């Protein structure tokens, strides 16, 4: 069927594959649980629950094609045994359940099982929820406004004379209005932005439009290490060390906000400052984050000009350009823009997430610099984690 939303297992973000390879080699026995949440108030998803189930059923029938496996095999950091494993892979339908939640209009989606076999659920499931919702609530929406907004952003960048090295990537798979609109966005960026457009997080889009797939690690990786490492306090260090063990210096952008910036900087010592290519910002004030990270590099005798700061927290183009101007000539900067590219159509975007909440039977959590992004289903564990990492109370 070609009218289904997800028709290829490559239609996901690159960091799912980079994390999945670490799971295969370092944590093949890990068991996890993911939970869906819609943060948008007053959204009723329940009328579309059967459509969502049908789309997920179809997703679980998909297999990687030989052409797709060859594409992955040609990535320098992907190992051949991982591609061989993907040749046998499918998403197990028995590991995911869609139901009705306790609140009015709420639905629940839970994935539970081996991390290795459930890690690829998150991104396509979120894309499915988005597209099912928008094709029902905004039927036959005219894309004229979306195209106008997209072209306005592109023209804003192309007209700037002081940002020759400004680089953006498209990061919007999980929040996209639709697959068709996503394709148009990437195609338009590739055609009209020249060297300002450096790639996409979506592997299928990168393959089809001959651009670079981008991504390293996500929050779930550092969260899982809370249960997989030797002790909780060392879990962030353990996660970074296991990443380095797997990739030996490749894919060197560290995620900085699973425990907040203070805890990240305490653990990101001179060894990691030198080993990793840079860090990614995903919550809190981007200007403060950048200034503190540059000062941290200097305090650890590392020249910030050699490092890359990746900004990806709910960005729009004017904010990204302002950040670029602030740090111009002081370090390398790059920007991952998601919802503002793939779901800026003149109607409100959905705020949906699907986060890991348990690993090996133990609760795990992300404690963000933005309180609304904190997600954990065990208040006692969250309180303990805050104590261990010397984080302020909620």
Automatic annotation (TrEMBL):
Glycosyltransferase is among the record's keywords: yes
Pathway stated in the Swiss-Prot or TrEMBL entry: Cofactor biosynthesis; NAD(+) biosynthesis; nicotinate D-ribonucleotide from nicotinate: step 1/1
GO biological process: NAD+ biosynthetic process via the salvage pathway
Domain (Nicotinate/nicotinamide phosphoribosyltransferase) ranges: 166-392
One term of GO molecular function: nicotinate phosphoribosyltransferase activity
Location of Phosphohistidine modifications: 219
One Gene Ontology cellular component annotation held by this UniProt entry: cytosol
Keywords recorded for this protein, A-Z: Glycosyltransferase, Ligase, Phosphoprotein, Pyridine nucleotide biosynthesis, Transferase
Residue ranges occupied by any Nicotinate phosphoribosyltransferase N-terminal domain in the UniProt entry: 10-130
EC number of this enzyme: 6.3.4.21
InterPro entries named in the record: N/Namide_PRibTrfase, NAPRTase_N, Nic_PRibTrfase, Nic_PRibTrfase-Fam, Nicotinate_pribotase-like_C
Record's comment on post-translational modification: Transiently phosphorylated on a His residue during the reaction cycle. Phosphorylation strongly increases the affinity for substrates and increases the rate of nicotinate D-ribonucleotide production. Dephosphorylation regenerates the low-affinity form of the enzyme, leading to product release.
Catalytic activity line of the entry: 5-phospho-alpha-D-ribose 1-diphosphate + nicotinate + ATP + H2O = nicotinate beta-D-ribonucleotide + ADP + phosphate + diphosphate
Superkingdom of origin: Bacteria
Role noted for this protein: Catalyzes the synthesis of beta-nicotinate D-ribonucleotide from nicotinate and 5-phospho-D-ribose 1-phosphate at the expense of ATP.
PANTHER family registered for this protein in UniProt: NICOTINATE PHOSPHORIBOSYLTRANSFERASE
Protein family per UniProt: Belongs to the NAPRTase family.
Listed name of the protein: Nicotinate phosphoribosyltransferase
Organism lineage: Bacteria, Pseudomonadati, Pseudomonadota, Betaproteobacteria, Burkholderiales
């Amino acid at each position: 069927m070609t009218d289904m939303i997800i028709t290829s297992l490559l239609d996901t973000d690159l960091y799912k594959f980079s994390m999945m390879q670490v799971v295969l080699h370092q944590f093949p026995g890990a068991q996890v649980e993911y939970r869906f949440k819609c943060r948008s108030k007053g959204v009723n998803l329940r009328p579309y629950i059967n459509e969502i189930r049908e789309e997920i059923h179809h997703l679980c029938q998909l297999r990687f094609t030989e052409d797709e496996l060859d594409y992955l095999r040609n990535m320098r950091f992907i190992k051949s045994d991982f591609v061989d494993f993907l040749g046998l892979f499918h998403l197990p339908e028995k590991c995911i359940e869609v139901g009705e939640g306790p609140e009015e209009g709420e639905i629940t989606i839970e994935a539970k099982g081996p991390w290795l076999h459930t890690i690829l659920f998150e991104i396509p499931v979120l894309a499915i929820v988005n597209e099912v919702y928008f094709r029902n609530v905004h039927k036959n929406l005219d894309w004229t406004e979306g195209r106008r907004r997209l072209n306005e952003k592109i023209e804003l960048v192309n007209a700037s004379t002081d940002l020759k090295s400004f680089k953006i990537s498209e990061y919007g798979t999980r929040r996209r209005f639709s697959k068709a609109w996503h394709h148009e966005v990437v195609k338009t960026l590739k055609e009209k932005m020249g060297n300002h457009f450096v790639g996409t997080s979506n592997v299928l889009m990168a393959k089809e439009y001959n651009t670079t797939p981008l991504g390293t690690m996500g929050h779930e990786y550092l969260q899982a290490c809370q249960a997989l490492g030797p002790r909780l306090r060392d879990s962030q260090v353990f996660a970074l060390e296991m990443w380095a063990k797997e990739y030996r210096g490749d894919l060197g952008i560290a995620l900085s906000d699973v425990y907040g910036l203070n805890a990240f900087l305490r653990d990101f010592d001179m060894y990691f400052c030198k080993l990793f290519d840079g860090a990614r910002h995903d919550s809190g004030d981007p200007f403060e984050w950048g200034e503190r990270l540059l000062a941290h590099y200097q305090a650890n005798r590392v020249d910030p000009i050699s490092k890359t700061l990746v900004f990806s927290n709910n960005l729009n183009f004017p904010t990204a350009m302002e950040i670029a101007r602030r740090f111009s000539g002081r370090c390398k900067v790059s920007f991952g823009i998601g919802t503002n590219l793939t779901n800026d159509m003149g109607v409100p975007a959905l705020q949906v997430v699907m986060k890991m909440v348990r690993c090996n039977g133990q609760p795990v959590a992300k404690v963000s610099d933005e309180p609304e992004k904190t997600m954990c289903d065990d208040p006692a564990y969250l309180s303990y984690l805050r104590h261990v990492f010397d984080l302020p109370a909620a």
